Here is the input.
Amino acid sequence: MTKPWTQGGIRIPAAVIEQIERAGREAYARNEEACGYLEGPLGDPLLVDRAVELPNLANKYHAVDPENHPRTGREYFKINALKFERAIQEGEVAERPVKVFFHSHLDCGAYFSAEDAASMTLGGTGSPSFDLAYLVTAVDAGVVTAHRLFIWEEASRTFIEAPFSRVEAA
Here is the structure.
């Protein structure tokens, strides 16, 4: 069964967008992408009302093993996949599912990159690993300049832009 939030039309309260923007600016100051997820009540499937930041581990991996991890956190995100999967499972049980994965791009706009697609589809070899929508926030010169939501389109087997709305309260 298709989860409604995977089709776009998600409503994000202003306070949650402010959290995402703060995370993006703070990560920019650390020279890395911000990342995390948005969850919300199962009974209102298009509403997200809580942002949870996840540590971007890319810089740590790069520092320890630059040959096998040549890119830094400025260029991509790396999360603890087990903790993220646990959050998804716990959200399902609590009827507060994870609906959106968010991350920022530094000085290059809000688009869904080939690396983003590979990260969410087991290396680009299939459909997304999780039933989520994906919010990309552009942080240019330390200032948030755009947010764009992306969803998986099975017919084209690609991620496409979808609408979302900013609402004043949950």
Summary: The mean pLDDT is 93.
